[in-house]
């Protein structure tokens, strides 16, 4: 930290003569409007908080690098994955999902796991969670889902009635609910959890051949979770426990690391696989599509300024580089728009010019002006295309790979509705004591729900996944498993 004496200045660089007393008309007179230093301080203070994120409001971040450890160039032309040993700087932001900026770190909630790769072809954002699946599979349901996780508009309290009503009416949520209510619903630290891209993406190689992929970041620290009572204690005593742990670990040189693996599925397999491979509420069996190592991510530097780096960092699943493309996943398709649009509202249309978001390569586009333009605004360069003056132009070499679409334009649901097999398989994979804690967590979360109708509807989903599971929850809630047709 710099300790030399420096002049305090205004934002326009003028030295400040008195930062302790405002200008007044005499010792007891009213404050003068000509005190521009006072006015600037107050006006800036009023604007020091950008609107917090609607979701993932509270987070922690760190800088590091990603190093390729396995040659995958046969599957993607992305340059940052082009050769073993190649390193790319990264910034990662971890976060809770539902809570506000001042909420506790150790609540039962998924964790955001967003990685920004500063590649030589532009920034690539992999915006996922610490879970391989999600609660819903169509973006049209996302605002409704998040509303259930937020506060009641009258009481301003969390509303378990809304939470379980929505989940019970959305059986596709069962897989993620199972993970959330299990031991993994409260990670011990941000270092001791896996990360996932969750969605299916497409890799395309230099020959234009494609393959479907799913991303898995496996923590080298091992998976550790918090006991429910300890988590509640920490939430009261140190609500910033996870942020503090990550900062301190990096500060003392205990750099957390993750191995990145992908599952690969041939394009043709998507037509016949027993689960829809683009349904983000489902996983691909690792027996069918084994994990293939790609590289290693290490976090080795803390932010210098939380607001400038962690709070103003913006991530979008639509920030692709050549060789990585979207899939037909309906949840992903909605996120391609929603994330970038959220940043344009929250941080401004020029959020990408801020240092934490700025690519390491030159940006050449015709976007100009707007709030908080922090670079040269394109200077005197050509500001339209096509043009006859040598301005930036598109290149056919970077076109998105062609893909086939069929059918009528319609509001079409997914054609696979087995929401119980994978959730039941996960339940049966748990040890007996883990199943007991899962049941206990669910029961405690459902007890405040006012309507038995909602409880019974949710119990029927647990029962369909595994009869033992549904029966155990019903008994603890003093209810009978509903008659199932």
TrEMBL record:
Keyword terms of this UniProt record: Heme, Hydrogen peroxide, Iron, Metal-binding, Oxidoreductase, Peroxidase
Catalyzed reactions per annotation: 2 H2O2 = O2 + 2 H2O
GO molecular function: catalase activity
Class of the enzyme per the UniProt entry, highest EC level: oxidoreductase
A Pfam family the protein falls into: Catalase
PROSITE patterns attached to this UniProt entry: CATALASE_1 (PS00437), CATALASE_2 (PS00438), CATALASE_3 (PS51402)
SUPFAM superfamilies: Heme-dependent catalase-like
EC number(s) from the headed UniProt entry: 1.11.1.6
Keyword Metal-binding tagged: yes
Cited SMART domains: Catalase (SM01060)
Annotated region described as Disordered, given as residue ranges: 1-26
Domain Catalase core, chain residue ranges per copy: 9-393
Keyword Cytoplasm: no
Composition-biased stretches (Polar residues): 1-24
Family: Belongs to the catalase family.
Protein's recorded name: Catalase
Annotated organism of origin: Paenibacillus aestuarii
Gene: katA
């Amino acid at each position: 930290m710099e300790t030399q004496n420096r002049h305090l200045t205004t934002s326009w660089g003028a030295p400040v003569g008195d930062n302790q007393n405002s200008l007044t008309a005499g010792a007891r007179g009213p404050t003068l409007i000509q005190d521009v230093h006072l006015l600037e301080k107050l006006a800036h203070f009023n604007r020091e908080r950008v609107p917090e994120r609607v979701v993932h409001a509270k987070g922690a971040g760190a800088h590091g690098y990603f190093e390729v450890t396995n040659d995958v160039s046969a599957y993607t032309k992305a340059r940052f994955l082009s050769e073993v040993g190649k390193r790319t700087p990264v910034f990662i932001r971890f976060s809770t999902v539902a809570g506000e900026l001042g909420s506790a770190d150790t609540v039962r909630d998924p964790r955001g796991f967003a990685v920004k790769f500063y590649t030589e072809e532009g920034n690539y954002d992999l915006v996922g969670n610490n879970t391989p699946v999600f609660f819903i599979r169509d973006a049209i349901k996302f605002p409704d889902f998040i509303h259930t996780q937020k506060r009641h508009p009258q009481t301003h309290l969390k509303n378990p009635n809304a939470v379980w009503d929505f989940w019970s009416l959305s059986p596709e949520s069962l897989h993620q609910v199972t993970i959330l209510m299990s031991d993994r619903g409260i990670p011990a630290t941000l270092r001791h959890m896996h990360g996932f891209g969750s969605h299916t993406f497409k890799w395309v190689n230099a020959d234009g051949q494609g393959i479907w992929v799913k991303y898995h970041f496996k923590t080298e620290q091992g998976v550790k979770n918090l006991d429910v009572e300890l988590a509640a204690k920490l939430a009261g005593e140190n609500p910033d426990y996870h942020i503090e742990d990550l900062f301190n670990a990096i500060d003392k040189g205990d750099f957390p690391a993750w191995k990145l693996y992908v599952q690969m599925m041939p394009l043709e397999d998507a037509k016949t696989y027993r689960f829809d491979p683009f349904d983000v509420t489902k996983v691909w069996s690792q027996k069918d599509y084994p994990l293939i190592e790609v590289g290693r991510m290490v976090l080795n530097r803390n932010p210098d300024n939380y607001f400038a780096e962690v709070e103003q960092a913006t991530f979008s699943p639509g920030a692709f580089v050549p060789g990585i493309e979207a899939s037909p996943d309906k949840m992903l398709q909605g996120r391609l728009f929603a994330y970038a649009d959220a940043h344009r509202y929250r941080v401004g249309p020029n959020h990408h010019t801020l240092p934490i978001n700025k690519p390491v390569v030159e940006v050449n586009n015709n976007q100009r002006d707007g709030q908080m333009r922090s670079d040269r605004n394109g200077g005197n360069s050509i500001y339209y295309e096509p043009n006859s003056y040598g301005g930036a132009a598109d290149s056919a070499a970077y076109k998105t790979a062609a893909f086939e679409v069929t059918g009528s334009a319609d509001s079409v649901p997914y054609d696979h509705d087995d929401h119980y097999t994978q959730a039941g398989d996960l339940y049966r994979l748990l040890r007996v004591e883990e199943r007991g804690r899962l049941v206990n967590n669910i029961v405690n979360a459902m007890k405040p729900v006012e309507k038995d109708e909602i409880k019974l509807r949710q119990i029927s989903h647990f029962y369909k996944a595994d009869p033992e599971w549904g029966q155990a929850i019903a008994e603890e809630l003093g209810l009978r498993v509903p008659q199932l047709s």
